[in-house]
Amino acid sequence: MGENGRRLRFGYFLMPEADAPLLDIAQRADRYGLDLLGIQDQPYQGRHADAHSLMGAVLGATGRIRVFPAVSCLPLRPPVLLAKAMATLDLVSGGRVELGLGAGAFRDAIGAYGGPRLTAGDARAALEEAVLLIRSMWDADGGGVCFRGEHYRLDGAPPGPVPGRRIDVWLGVTGPRALALTGRVADGWIASSARVPPGRLVDARRRIDEAAKDAGRDPADIRRIYILSGSFGPGGPGGFLNGDSGQWVGEIAELALGYGVDSFLYDGDPEYLETFALEIVPAVRETVMRERA
């Protein structure tokens, strides 16, 4: 259990380089017992495979691991079609899909692909609208969905398919107002150690928790997913997650015990995927369980 009482979950962050053995990596993560596979979604990267198409292939090639975009680039992914795509993947996979969603950080790259170049405020407002719209499409009882927002409008859109279970919506955001948005409306928060180092987690957690309480929500219901960037082996550059397996175990356990993180995705060389899954993960679970006892 993490500090918030949730069972710890572990996974891999897959960079969808089109020339990489993507399905083999995903199958290894599944075979090693990892819980989650997050697939980066940057459609404007010419060397990347399409994340959502890859999700379908991964779900067909694996049997148990849960798969999600980390995170879907909203400006290039119309939310009504996101809702349909995620519901479809969830149904055909037997309920192994979650939705990671982001406002889109690279405006020029998005614009080069024909997407809108939104200000930070507009991007955040569009993200909030998208969460509400997507859930409306999933929760509709058969009648047409009407939505009137500043960025999105639906005029009696037929909903469906309806997912077989509640799909979580996790937001990959970093700014103070976007963190508050996470606390108000999201099921989870996705952060990367490369962009949100441990020293910033306390403030981010406070903003999410306060916003959740103000909205009448229990902060413990919001998952905290942390993408771990680092390197293995002695004699490395030092610093956070740059060292041997023992250092990784200690630092991940501290994230769970002291910062309330409950889900961890290894973002690194897949050559060390077995080490992470079969050595580090069990040791972290044991350490956290022992400390909590």
From TrEMBL:
InterPro entries: F420-G6PD/mer, Luciferase-like_dom, Luciferase-like_sf
Luciferase-like domain mapped to chain residues: 21-226
Coiled coil segments of this chain: none
MF-aspect GO terms: oxidoreductase activity
Keyword vocabulary terms for this entry: Oxidoreductase
Protein EC: 1.-.-.-
CDD domains: Tetrahydromethanopterin_reductase
PANTHER family named in the record: 5,10-METHYLENETETRAHYDROMETHANOPTERIN REDUCTASE (PTHR43244:SF1), PTHR43244
Protein name: LLM class flavin-dependent oxidoreductase
UniProt source species: Actinomadura rugatobispora
Lineage start: Bacteria, Bacillati, Actinomycetota, Actinomycetes, Streptosporangiales
